[in-house]
Amino acid sequence: xxxxxxxxxxxxxxxxxxxxxxxxxxxxxxxxxxxxxxxxxxxxxxxxxxxxxxxxxxxxxxxxxxxxxxxxxxxxxxxxxxxxxxxxxxxxxxxxxxxxxxxxxxxxxxxxxxxxxxxxxxxxxxxxxxxxxxxxxxxxxxxxxxxxxxxxxxxxxxxxxxxxxxxxxxxxxxx
Length: 175
Ligand SMILES: Cc1cc2nc3c(=O)[nH]c(=O)nc-3n(C[C@H](O)[C@H](O)[C@H](O)COP(=O)(O)O)c2cc1C
Known about the structure:
This protein has helices spanning about 15-25, 60-70, 90-100, 100-105, 125-145, 155-170; strands at about 5-10, 30-35, 50-55, 60, 80-85, 110-115. It is of the alpha/beta class. Strands 1, 2, 3, 4, 5 and 6 form a 6-stranded mixed β-sheet that branches. The structure holds flavin mononucleotide. Flavin mononucleotide (FMN) binds next to α1, β3 and α5.
């Protein structure tokens, strides 16, 4: 059975929810979920790796940055997909090109935006404040554009499904 590692780092639960949804879509494979904030896995135990991080203040989580730089870019034979969770979907390409190490970008089978949230509800105080103003910015700019139903970010099931499909079906490296 194909052994798939889903390793993620987030703060308020959205990245974890995306990772869990991906794991669900990988039912029938031997899937392991790993929170990089708690543990750094050894990828030699897996056939495929999918690694993800949220973006906060224009940066990856330090644990995810380390994992991509040291483990993925270093041990380069495990097919790897990467996902980001970000509140500003229109900045995804910029985050992808700036935050993901070149060595990882060149060998990833997919780099995808799994979505994100700008919903302040239930978050710690400073995050709530940040999210409140970020959300206000989105709403105001869309009203300026003449669109009165602002499109706030959410989880992106299509992109998660595409990652799951590739992780299940891509040809494996003979070890
Ligand atoms: C303090 C803070 C800073 C953030 N900075 C960014 C950012 O620079 N760019 C962006 O697109 N989203 C940003 N976001 C939105 C997060 O990427 C989004 O809420 C994401 O879903 C968080 O994932 P998590 O729940 O796993 O922490 C920020 C959110 C917070 C609370």
